[in-house]
Amino acid sequence: MNLSVTLAGKTFKNPITTASGTFGSGAEYEEFVDLSALGAVTTKGVANVPWEGNPTPRVTETYGGMLNAVGLQNPGIELFCKRDIPHLLKKKASIIVNVCGKSAEDYEEVVERLADEPVDLLEINVSCPNVKEGGIAFGQNPDALYEITRRVKAKAKQPIVMKLSPNVTDITEMARAAEAGGSDALSLINTLTGMKIDIHRRRFVLANQTGGLSGPAIHPVAVRMVYQVHKACKLPIIGMGGVMTWEDAIELMMAGATMVAVGTANFHNPRATMEILEGIKRYMEQYHIEDICDIIGCMG
User: Fold this and answer.
1) What is the pLDDT of residues 60-109, one digit of tens each?
2) Which of 45, 90, 194, 274 has the fewest Cβ atoms within 10 angstroms?
3) Is the separation of the CB atoms in 5 and 11 below 8 Å?
């Protein structure tokens, strides 16, 4: 039975990774998860300088998921390289680094700093607000997405994976813009913008008013968008969005994802990634599937 997959020229032992922002850099999950058994660990977003994130409260449960407005709080690239990368290497994990920034120069600085680090892929979070363009996310304008992709690709030594925002009219337009800009792969979907109001206090639950909706409620949207992007461009895809079970992971792979990232599920079940991986193995045995790659994009 072959569980290995190849994405952007890199081979991973299986298709399961973690979704950025839900797993840190793995240290807090080691009691429950063998990091070396995962296809890869996708780290929390890292910027050129430390970010404090948004004011609290910044996380709340919702029906079928959760809203977060953490604001990409992170320790900055220098501490990340000193602390997190060596730890993941010690645990024999494959590493996908999520990169965030507020300007094209921020992204360039981070990918240049990572050029000589032993990491496998760079996942570029284009849902960050572009401070030079009035705060609109890089990933919500195809021209801006093309430009940030082109600039990051020119500086990066590792393959880049542009992480697409679902908060757009046409996800395929964004996918094609990233492809034209030179991206080596795509990941989708990031969170959907949502809001929750405390009707008794007549105030917003999150200090930021809006937050990113994740969890099982968004899974059908993720499946649809992964399928559309798989049909619209030739880049391999890391699929994510509400993956709670192995069935969810298989569904995204059939829609066109080469790898699958598990996010919100980690919060209520720290062994979610391991259980999903075991479920995929049982599924392959049940249906006599010798190679996991045979199901990728099998829906056409």
Assistant:
1) 999 999 999 887 788 899 999 999 999 999 999 999 999 999 899 999 99
2) 90
3) yes
Domains defined for the chain, CATH in brackets: 5-295 (3.20.20.70)
Encoded tokens for 182: 């030179």
Structure tokens at 86: 């060596």
Using DSSP, state whether 234 is helix, strand or coil.
Answer: coil
- Active-site positions read 128
Kindly tell me the burial class for residue 56, based on how many C-beta atoms sit within 10 Å of its own C-beta (0-12, 13-18, 19 or more).
exposed
What span, in angstroms and rounded, lies between the C-alpha atoms of 287 and 197?
46
Summarised one tens digit per residue, pLDDT across range 160-197 is 999 999 999 999 999 999 999 999 999 999 999 999 99
Cα separations in angstroms, 159 against 46, 121, 236, 247, 288 = 17, 5, 12, 29, 33
| C-alpha to C-alpha distance for 138 and 128, rounded to whole angstroms | 6
Closest CA relative to residue 124, chosen from 51, 186, 34, 189: 186
